[in-house]
Amino acid sequence: MKILLVEDDDVFTKVLTKSLATHHYVVDTVKDGEMGWTYGSTFEYDLMVLDIMLPKLDGISLCRRFRAEGYVTPILLLTAQDTRTVKVQGLDAGADDYIVKPFDQVELIARLRALLRRGSNNPLPLLTWGDLLLNSSTCEVSYNGQPLSLTTKEYELLELLLRDSQSVFSTEELIDRLWSSEEFPSDATVRSHIRRVRQKLSAVGAPQDFITTLHGRGYYLKAMATMATTATMATMATMATTGSILAPRHSTPSSQMLPSLPTGGKTLPGGVSSGIPSDVSSYISPSVSSKISSSVISPLQLRQQYVSFLNETWATTQPKSLDQILVLLQTVRYLQCDRLTPLQQAEAQQIAHKLVGTLGIFGLTKTTHLARQIEYWLGGQEPLEPKHAPLMKALVVALQQEIQNTIQIELSQLPDQSLPLLLLVSSDPEFNQSLLTVATHCGIQIETVFSPESVAKWEGGQPHAIVFRLPADLTNAEAAHSPIAAHLLDMLQTFAHRYPELPILVIGDRGGLSDRLEVLRRGGKLFLEAPMPPEQVMATIVNLLKGEELPPKVMVVDDDREWLRTLPTLLKPWGFKVTTLDEPQHFWTVLKAVTPDALVLDVNMPQINGLELCQILRSDPGWRRLPVLFLSALTDAATQHQAFAVGADDYLCKPMMGVELANRILSRLHRVRAWAT
Amino acid sequence: MCIKRVLIIDDEETIQTVVQFGIKMAAGWEVLTAGSGAQGIQTAQSEKPDVILLDVMMPEMDGIATFKALQSHAETEQIPVILLTAKAQTAEKRQFNDLGASGVITKPFNSLNLPEQIARILHWKCKYENLAGRR
A302–B55: do the CB atoms touch at under 8 Å? Predict the structure, then answer.
């Protein structure tokens, strides 16, 4: 059981953490309300304990915020005021319980236990499974009357499996639930804990597979048909509620990641976010959805969370840095009257150096630069004399002002070497802006240049792709000979020459043969005809960029659920990311959400058949390049002809081996990529 | 899943905090922190991290001294060390290489990028999963 404790009193925290640890709870502690929000919304907890009096964000507001965002985790409030108002406020804010300080540790633990039980099926502190009995109030475990001696982790593991005995727990989930967020054990560690618990269980006569491995999914307690009934009430209660049904714990397929979808991600409880409208989840078949990791965060959301963390940290760093500035100002004063000792200078240099490091991590480029200059002067490469005092003073004061003026750390100012860089050559501000918005969502950086001069002087990092937006009149045959047009085409050629291996995408208003030829001859590799929605431009770029890095996304539409269920496993060895859909009427929504790299369609389906789906697809210019493979039980030539006529790239007949299907998909993907780059 | 354990030795607490959070968010790796060379050596010995990020300029025991000490202990000599330094001169970088450091990461950095940078320097095959949106 994992608990988040938000409490600013260190002594109190220490005592409480210790006592919680002896009761086998894993505890994360943070000291203020904002941090509480960051942790509570980032990591998964079974329970949260919030002090009401907290810096930055009080416990009641924090509680309200969790509830407003849809978190259902039990919350217990700690209050120093034994007044009715506070209690009522707390409970109205969505708290499940409160306890008044000072309180008895034993009582608090008992209340926590009660809250934790509320979420489970079992109303009693006794947890049982077959002959296994776990008493959570005494932390004793026995099998068939024989006591088991377990380590803390082993106890927690068993308790978790018992508490949620209808669930399969993946290694990842076990790590999330049983280890604090400061610890990150390896999969092997988890496996070795499981192994040891199994050994201990079998030593007292439990079956080897008491804890069963569901391959590729995780662990669960085996449902026993002939479960020996003991006479305890608890057993009865458990028996009544635990069948042999094993439901995957996380059926949150909506968390499938869609970096290319700009529909404004919404945050789901647990900090899991998604760009998919939540209703999509209901028709991506569960067999697939359970394979999709439950904690996918888009690049943007990841960065946003990181930035909000930086802002939290800045709130405490800023005053600290300003204090350090005061020391530097004092140093300048000493320097001014020639009283600066080498020791003082060395100390001041140390401070300046620390400021460089600290400010740098917040991405405060200008501020860091100032601090670095101060560090340089204090470093003594050149002797520091009183005549330098005015310069030093100016630098320190400027630094002070910069730090004071930094109210907010912005996402855009963070250094980022890893995001793919897209160089955009365009003088169309509207287009640039719309592309920029979409790019940010996809985690792509954009640098815009619009004049031949700026191109010549371009000294930014190595771009990963280049997009040229030809002005509207350029592809007009006459205008093509205008100086601007010639310039632009020269620029294209310059870039193609400079970065021969880069994908260069050209967007022009008219895509006649001569225009296309001109662009091609100048080194453009892809030509898109305007107007083109920015999402589609970006999707094309993402496709180009991801190359071999990302697993190809394959979407399969078929009404045969059994077949769909086996597909992900069948295609797994080839590293495809498979999305299956058994209801053709949701085809378009899912298609747009998933943006697959290849599509596999069945022919005969209720409501809308595969041929029609293919026609719909091809009727949209943006989807004409998507490889479409038909896979059907129909082997007749007429259907095959028809399939090719509506835009199929390949036609395969069932039954089909995984390897053959994979090869056909790969060869299609290869074709598209070879063409693009 | 491939969880690595990283030890960061840096005297600036803010940097420790941010790096810890950033790496954890980006890749889910475990990050241990130490505020001085001496403390770092101790942690390295007891925890045996997969990699050590070591700030070059620290008061008292600086990064180079810490690195040499790590190299001289049997328990820690095998642990790859990546030095964290402000814009390093080429000569300085060569010196670090000659010492036997696995690589250099230049400050300022974005902690979210660290897992990728580390994996690249150390040729870790394991796909840490992050910015592409997969976790």
Answer: no
Q: Does B135 touch chain A (CB under 8 A)?
A: yes
Task: Check whether B70 has a pLDDT greater than 90.
Answer: yes
> Does the structural domain A553-676 have CATH classification 2.60.120.260?
no
Note whether A549 contacts B113, CB cutoff 8 Å.
no
End-to-end CA distance of chain B: 9
Q: Is B109 on the interface with A (CB under 8 A)?
A: yes
- Cα distance between residue A416 and residue A413, in whole Å: 9
pLDDT band at A109 (very low <50, low <70, confident <90, very high): confident
CA proximity to A594, closest of A624, A534, A551, A558: A551
CATH number where B102 lies: 3.40.50.2300
* Helix ranges restricted to H, A268-424: 286-289, 299-336, 342-361, 365-378, 389-405
Query: Token pair for residue A208?
Result: 């080897």
Long-range Cβ contacts of B72-77 (<8 Å, 24+ apart):
B73/B41, B73/B45, B75/B44, B75/B45, B75/B48, B76/B41, B76/B44, B76/B45, B76/B48
Instruction: For residues A51 and A62, give the distance between their C-alpha atoms in angstroms, rounded to a whole number.
Output: 10
Domain layout of chain A by residue ranges: 2-118, 126-235, 301-411, 421-546, 553-676
Backbone dihedral angles phi then psi of residue B86, each to the nearest 5 degrees = -70, 155
- Reported for A132-140, long-range contacts at CB under 8 A and 24+ positions apart, including other chains, are A132/A158, A132/A162, A132/A201, A132/A206, A132/A210, A133/A230, A133/A232, A133/A234, A134/A158, A134/A159, A134/A162, A137/A110, A137/A113, A139/A23, A139/A24
Residue in B81, B59, B57, B50 with CA at minimum distance from that of residue B68: B81
Q: How confident is the model at residue A335 (pLDDT cuts 50, 70, 90)?
A: very high
Task: Report CB contact under 8 Å: B107, A550.
Answer: no
Q: What is the mean pLDDT of residues B16-43?
A: 90
pLDDT over threshold 80, residue A252: no
Q: Which CATH number fits domain A301-411: 1.10.150, 1.20.120, 1.10.10, 1.10.287?
A: 1.20.120
Whether the pLDDT of residue A480 is over 80: the answer is: no
Query: Where is pLDDT greater, at B41 or A423?
Result: B41
pLDDT number for residue A115: 83
- pLDDT digits 0-9 by tens, A263-301: 333 333 333 333 333 333 333 333 333 222 334 456 667
Q: Is B124 on the interface with A (CB under 8 A)?
A: no
CA distance A330 to A317: 20
Domain that holds residue B45: 5-122
Chain B: give the shortest CA distance to residue A97, in Å: 31
CATH number of A126-235, picked from 3.90.550.10, 2.60.120.10, 3.40.1190.20, 1.10.10.10: 1.10.10.10
pLDDT of residue A285: 32
Per-residue pLDDT of A149-199, as tens digits, reads: 888 888 888 888 887 776 788 888 888 888 876 777 788 888 888 988 988
Percent of the residues in chain A that have a pLDDT greater than 90, as a whole number: 13
Best probe of the A interface among B18, B85, B114, B128, by most A CBs < 10 A, is: B18
Q: Which residue of A has its CA nearest to B2?
A: A186
The dihedral through the CA atoms of A650, A651, A657, A658 has a sign that is positive
Q: What is the DSSP string of A233-301?
A: HHHHHHHHH--S--EES---GGG---TT--S--EEPGGG-EESS-GGGGGGS-HHHHTTS-S----HHH
Q: Helix, strand or coil for residue A442?
A: helix
Cβ-contact B121, B92 below 8 angstroms: no
Position A299 scores a pLDDT of 65
* Closest among A582, A617, A566 to A596, alpha carbons compared: A617
